[in-house]
C-alpha cells in the first residue's frame, strides 16, 4: 500500500501539470511554470524509482542539471520575447498566425 501511494502522488502531480500546461496557453510565463512543475514531478518519480530498485542517484543529479538548463533557456526566451514584442502573450510569438 505504501509503495502504491508513493507512485500515485507523483503521477497525479504529473497529470495535473500536463492539464495546466494544455489548458493555460495564454502567457509564456505560465507555460514555463507548468513545464517546471512537470519536470519536478518527473524528478520525484525518477527519484522514487531509483531508490526503490537501489540504483545510483547520479542520474537524478544529471536530470536536475538538464532541467536547470531548460529553465534558464526558457527564461532567456521570455526576456528576449518581452524585449522584442513588449509582452509575453504566446499568440504574439506565433509567426504563422494571420
TrEMBL record:
Transmembrane regions listed in the UniProt entry: 6-23, 35-52, 58-82
GO biological processes: ATP synthesis coupled electron transport
Entry GO MF terms: NADH dehydrogenase (ubiquinone) activity; oxidoreductase activity, acting on NAD(P)H
Protein name: NADH-ubiquinone oxidoreductase chain 4L
Family: Belongs to the complex I subunit 4L family.
EC number: 7.1.1.2
Compartments reported by the entry: Mitochondrion inner membrane; Mitochondrion membrane
Lineage, highest ranks first: Eukaryota, Metazoa, Ecdysozoa, Arthropoda, Hexapoda
Keywords: Electron transport, Membrane, Mitochondrion, Mitochondrion inner membrane, NAD, Respiratory chain, Translocase, Transmembrane, Transmembrane helix, Transport, Ubiquinone
Domain of life: Eukaryota
Organism: Celyphus obtectus
Catalytic activity annotation: a ubiquinone + NADH + 5 H(+)(in) = a ubiquinol + NAD(+) + 4 H(+)(out)
Amino acid at each position: 500500500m505504501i509503495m502504491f501511494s508513493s507512485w500515485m502522488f507523483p503521477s497525479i502531480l504529473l497529470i495535473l501539470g500536463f492539464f495546466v500546461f494544455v489548458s493555460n496557453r495564454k502567457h509564456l510565463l505560465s507555460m514555463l511554470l507548468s513545464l517546471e512543475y512537470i519536470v519536478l514531478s518527473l524528478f520525484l518519480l525518477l527519484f522514487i524509482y531509483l531508490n526503490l530498485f537501489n540504483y545510483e542517484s547520479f542520474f537524478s543529479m544529471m536530470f536536475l542539471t538538464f532541467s536547470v538548463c531548460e529553465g534558464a533557456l526558457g527564461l532567456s526566451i521570455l526576456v528576449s520575447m518581452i524585449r522584442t514584442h513588449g509582452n509575453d502573450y504566446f499568440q504574439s510569438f506565433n509567426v504563422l498566425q494571420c
